[in-house]
């Protein structure tokens, strides 16, 4: 199964690249600000939290001699969260959004999630470039972030793609899935230490947060981006195994449901 899907994706590699390029262009076309919209929306969200919570949270970041410590913390966390969020949201509706193409054009359906992931990674890379620039301007060393970014991006995107594609297949047959995912992501945002530090919570609550895989994803981003430390090896191993498992589950569901999806759509 894996070989046939990989072969199909390779045969359509130029279509995939052209689609990713077209998706990127569509985001900046017909707009005066164009390219800036890719970074303005996430940057605005970071700025809101920094403005409201900076005075309260900065003192919770020991070991960082920078008055913009909380802003640095937010940029690190959102670098991982925005990628996860975009891949999940787009994969959940991927088959519904492309229903007409699936009915009228003969092409391997597996190229659709590849296009989504490729486009999301490029958008995230643009935001990461902004993060590196901000770190330099704020006097924080960006080199550890640059060194670990490719691996963390690969693990985050793979896990999100596996989960998102599984949910996307289910969403074809049970349209409530898309609504549930939206609520779950809001809940997951606050169950992940993105805009707050774990040490502000009661100790009895912290083990519950650690059951959330995104806790460890964001912990890796914070360790590398903020403190210049490598991710915890066990965390990386666990996240990698989970990402592979989610991708395997997604491919299994995709293969079993592929023949029926077009009829349902």
- Described by the principal axes of the CA atoms, the overall outline is globular
Characterize the biggest β-sheet. none
Strand content: under 5%
Number of helices: 12
Q: What pattern of helices and strands is seen along the backbone?
A: HHHHHHHHHHHH
Going by helix content, strand content and strand pairing, the class is mainly alpha
Low-confidence stretches: none
* Spatial extent as radius of gyration: 19 Å
What's the number of domains? 1
GO cellular component, one term: plasma membrane
GO molecular function, one term: ABC-type transporter activity
Keywords: Cell membrane, Membrane, Polysaccharide transport, Sugar transport, Transmembrane, Transmembrane helix, Transport
Subcellular location: Cell inner membrane; Cell membrane
Write a brief structural summary.
It is found in: Cell inner membrane; Cell membrane. It is a multi-pass membrane protein. The chain is mainly α and 265 residues long.
Outline the structure in words.
Helices cover 77% and strands 0% of the residues. It is mostly helical and 265 residues long. Helix 3 packs across helix 4. The longest helix is centred in the last third of the chain and has 32 residues, at 233-264. The model has no long low-confidence stretch (mean pLDDT 87).
Question: What is the secondary structure topology, with strand pairs?
Answer:
Elements: H1 2-11, H2 13-28, H3 37-57, H4 69-92, H5 94-97, H6 99-104, H7 111-137, H8 143-173, H9 176-190, H10 206-209, H11 213-227, H12 233-264
């Amino acid at each position: 199964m894996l070989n046939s899907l990989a072969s199909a994706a390779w045969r359509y590699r130029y279509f995939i690249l052209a689609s990713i390029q077209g998706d990127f262009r569509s985001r900046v076309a017909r707009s005066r600000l164009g390219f800036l919209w890719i970074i303005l929306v996430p940057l605005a969200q970071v700025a809101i939290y920094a403005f409201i919570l900076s005075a309260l949270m900065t003192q919770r970041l020991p070991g960082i001699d920078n008055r913009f410590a909380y802003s640095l913390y937010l940029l690190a966390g959102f670098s991982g969260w925005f990628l996860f969020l975009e891949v999940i949201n787009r994969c959940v509706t991927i088959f519904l959004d492309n229903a007409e193409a699936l009915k009228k054009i003969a092409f391997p359906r597996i190229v659709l999630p590849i296009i989504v992931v490729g486009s999301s990674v490029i958008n995230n890379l643009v935001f990461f470039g902004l993060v590196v620039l901000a770190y330099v301007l704020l006097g924080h060393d960006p080199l550890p972030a640059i060194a670990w970014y490719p691996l963390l991006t690969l693990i985050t995107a793979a896990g999100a793609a596996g989960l998102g594609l599984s949910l996307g297949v289910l969403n074809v047959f049970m349209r409530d899935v898309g609504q549930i995912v939206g609520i779950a992501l809001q809940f997951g945002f606050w169950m992940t230490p993105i805009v707050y530090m774990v040490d502000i919570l009661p100790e009895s609550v912290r083990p519950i947060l650690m059951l959330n895989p995104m806790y460890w994803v964001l912990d890796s981003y914070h360790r590398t981006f903020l403190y210049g430390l490598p991710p915890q090896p066990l965390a990386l191993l666990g996240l990698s195994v989970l990402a592979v498992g989610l991708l395997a589950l997604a491919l299994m569901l995709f293969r079993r449901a592929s023949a029926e999806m077009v009829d349902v759509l």
